[in-house]
Amino acid sequence: MEPSKSAAPADQAVTASGAQVLEFVQHVALKTWTNDFNQVLAVYVLRAPAVTGARHPTEGKMDHFSSDIAFTPAVKDVQSRRGSRGIYEKVEARGGFRTAITEDLAGFLAAIDTAYLATASAGGQPYAQHRGGPKGFIRVIDERTIGFADFAGNRQYISTGNLAENSKAFLFLMDYANRRRIKLWGRARIVEGDAALLARLMPDYAARPEQAILFEVDAWDANCPQHIPQKFDAADVAVAITRLEQRIATLEAENSRLQQQVSAERNPA
Ligand SMILES: Cc1cc2nc3c(=O)[nH]c(=O)nc-3n(C[C@H](O)[C@H](O)[C@H](O)COP(=O)(O)O)c2cc1C
């Protein structure tokens, strides 16, 4: 998939400096996108099952593959009816989704500032809530566990209450700038009153940490970048624009100096 080559419609009037801002931001974005797309591909290739045709010895038994956490019998039935079951049988032949936190995943976590945490009540009522912070606010604790400081908020405590009665949880990790997303299934728990853990998880960020959330990963998978609208951090864009403005100021000063020089040469005193 090609990133958009144009940051503004062709017929849209842009000033010279505006065009340069767009070009510069686009250049930075393209470079980042290219680097990170390679990473995404690496995640895919590393994760993707080889087409060996091998059958796992216990294939067919319930809850054997890590991907069964998502591929329930009902899901598999739909896949069969719609013709994609064969593709995912190949994933299963290699053991299903990943379960350990790899370097790829740790690198992804270090780069993101946005996640959506899904929980459900004991009765199965789903709920999703945004979690955000500075990049890297979700930290790797060990090979199977990630955690983050839960900041004080509106005190509805829906996620906290849900986790008290149902530890099943899901994290959807978004990287809009680089058009990447990763989904993790697992079990989460709230840790209250553990100052050392909170200190370990709390980023340098203006928020009051209320508790820690530890998420034990059961399975994770990456989605392709299709249909992810590309969005940039305002702070990253501001840095790019500041650099561009400084460059424009330098060029304007040089232009002015050269104009004066030409004028002096054309009109000697
Ligand atoms: C003062 C304040 C008010 C907030 N109001 C809301 C709100 O009305 N609705 C909401 O979904 N989140 C709101 N938030 C954000 C949530 O409180 C925060 O995301 C919290 O972690 C959600 O907890 P939960 O996952 O248990 O819902 C607010 C945050 C603050 C600091």
CATH topology-level fold name of the domain at 97-230 = Pnp Oxidase, Chain A
Query: What helical percentage do the residues reach?
Result: 40-55%
Hetero groups bound? flavin mononucleotide
Average per-residue pLDDT, rounded, comes to 83
Shape: elongated
**Structure classification:** alpha+beta
Number of helices: 7
**Low-confidence region ranges:** 1-22, 28-61
State the distance separating the first and last CA atoms: 61 Å
Give a verbal description of the structure:
The protein is of the alpha+beta class. Among the domains are: 52-95, no CATH class; 97-230, Pnp Oxidase, Chain A. The chain has 7 helices and 7 strands, in the order H-H-H-H-E-E-E-E-H-E-E-H-E-H. The protein has helices at residues 16-47, 73-82, 85-93, 103-111, 158-165, 195-201, 234-266, and strands at residues 114-120, 126-132, 139-142, 145-151, 168-175, 180-191, 209-223. Strand 3 (139-142) and strand 4 (145-151) form a beta hairpin. Helix 1 (16-47) runs antiparallel to helix 7. The termini are far apart. Mean pLDDT is 83; it is low at 1-22 and 28-61. The structure holds flavin mononucleotide. Flavin mononucleotide binds next to strand 2 and helix 5.
Describe the secondary-structure layout.
Blueprint: H1 16-47, H2 73-82, H3 85-93, H4 103-111, E1 114-120, E2 126-132, E3 139-142, E4 145-151, H5 158-165, E5 168-175, E6 180-191, H6 195-201, E7 209-223, H7 234-266
Antiparallel strand pairs: 1-2, 1-5, 3-4, 4-7, 5-6, 6-7
Helix pairs in contact: 1-7
The chain binds flavin mononucleotide.
Flavin mononucleotide binds at residues 129-130, 153-154, 156-160.
